[in-house]
Amino acid sequence: MTLRRLTLLAPLAAISLSACGVNQIPASEENAKAKWADVENQYQRRADLIPNLVATVKGYATHEQSTLEGVVQARAKATSITISGDDLKDPAKMKQFQDAQDQLGQSLGRLLAVQEAYPQLQANQNFLALQSQLEGTENRIAVARSDYNAAVQQYNTMIRTFPDMITAKVIYGAKPITPFTATAPDAQNAPKVSF
């Protein structure tokens, strides 16, 4: 009789475990980590473009040395801070990373504003190509951040809702992943453009 009960209970146990997210939780967490890798990839692309942009601007804007040095320093700081998959659950490390990336973005904004003071730079094909690449990269970063936040939302929702939350806590000791948030003080305000 006990063998027969076990035979009947085994499929029931398998079905109930499948409903508890045993496989979905790690898959969702890995998806969020993969999306974060996409964000880092786009930041790396931006960091790789910056030396070319700086070199092009240097040829024209020798008087803007402090702006150029600021970009180089911000790039060095931004590339020195890395986030691993485990760090995604540490809000302090995520803030440190985001602050460094925001500082780099602000430095790039000042560098791109230099073009207004140098009409010959505006017409330089190398500068225009690099500027276009940088703008494309910024758009890719925005898309990658959005995709990451969607994956984080899906994972965080899963580990906080019943019945998956039981499996998440008991089996995996799951913690919420930190979403990407704007940390620049004026990020919510539209930029002011004046000519």
Outline:
The chain is mainly alpha-helical and 195 residues long. It contains seven helices and no strands.
- Helix fraction bin: over 70%
Q: Sheet with the most strands?
A: none
Unreliable spans are 190-195
How many strand segments?
0
CATH class membership of the domain at 38-138: Mainly Alpha
Overall 3D form: elongated
Structure description:
- It is built from seven helices and no strands.
- By secondary structure, it is mostly helical.
- It has a domain of 101 residues: de novo design (two linked rop proteins) (Up-down Bundle).
- Helix 2 packs antiparallel against helix 3, helix 2 runs antiparallel to helix 6 and helix 3 packs antiparallel against helix 4.
Question: Which features characterize this protein?
Answer:
73% helix; elongated; de novo design (two linked rop proteins); 195 residues; mainly alpha; 7 helices
Secondary structure: elements and pairs:
Blueprint: H1 2-18, H2 24-60, H3 65-80, H4 91-113, H5 119-123, H6 125-160, H7 164-172
Helix pairs in contact: 2-3, 2-6, 3-4
